[in-house]
Amino acid sequence: QVQLVESGGGLVQPGGSLRLSCAASGRTYTIRAMGWYRQAPGKQRELVATINGGSTNYAGSVKGRFSISRDNAKNTVYLQMNSLKPEDTAVYYCNANNLATQYWGQGTQVTVSL
Questions:
Q1: What residues contact residue 29 under an 8 Å CB cut-off, 6+ apart?
Q2: Is the dihedral of CA 112, 14, 56, 72 positive or negative?
Q3: Distance, CA of 34 to CA of 97 (rounded, Å)
Q4: Cα separation, 49 vs 62, whole angstroms
Q5: By the 8 A CB rule, do 6 and 37 touch?
Q6: 3-class SS letters over the chain
Q7: Residue 84 dihedral angles phi and psi, to the nearest 5°
Q8: Who contacts 32 (Cβ-Cβ below 8 Å, separation ≥6)?
Q9: Can you give the pLDDT at residue 87?
Q10: Do residues 36 and 94 touch, judged by C-beta distance below 8 A?
Q11: Per residue of the chain (114 residues), what is the pLDDT tens digit?
Q12: Residue 98: its pLDDT value, please?
């Protein structure tokens, strides 16, 4: 089993920045890829960014504004979010997978508003 705990969400004005963190515990040695997803009210959960080794992947809507990174020594993945827009408002979920199982964190709220 792998447990994921997110932190770093909050309220920010448009154009601002936030940094999300996701700390993994348990059988972390089984993790391959990690990523961030988000779900806005009334919408389906969507991919934001993933990282697998040295490879990263971003949704088109966040490319150039968000950056995902991973500290293997700390079993933590980060999402640096810059130039935030109101449409980035959502619950952000951390994800980890080991090819057989998907793990999810509890989510952290990000609200972009004046």
A1: none
A2: negative
A3: 7
A4: 8
A5: no
A6: CEEEEEECCEEECCCCCEEEEEEEEECHHHCCEEEEEEECCCCCCEEEEEEECCEEEECCCCCCCEEEEEECCCCEEEEEECCCCHHHCEEEEEEEECCCCEEECCCEEEEECC
A7: -65, 145
A8: 52, 97, 98, 99
A9: 97
A10: yes
A11: 999 999 999 999 999 999 999 999 999 888 899 999 999 999 999 999 999 988 999 999 999 999 999 999 999 999 999 999 999 999 999 999 987 899 999 999 999 999
A12: 87
Tokens at 17, concatenated: 């920045």
- Tokens (6 digits) for 32: 């391959």
Structure tokens at 18: 């936030």
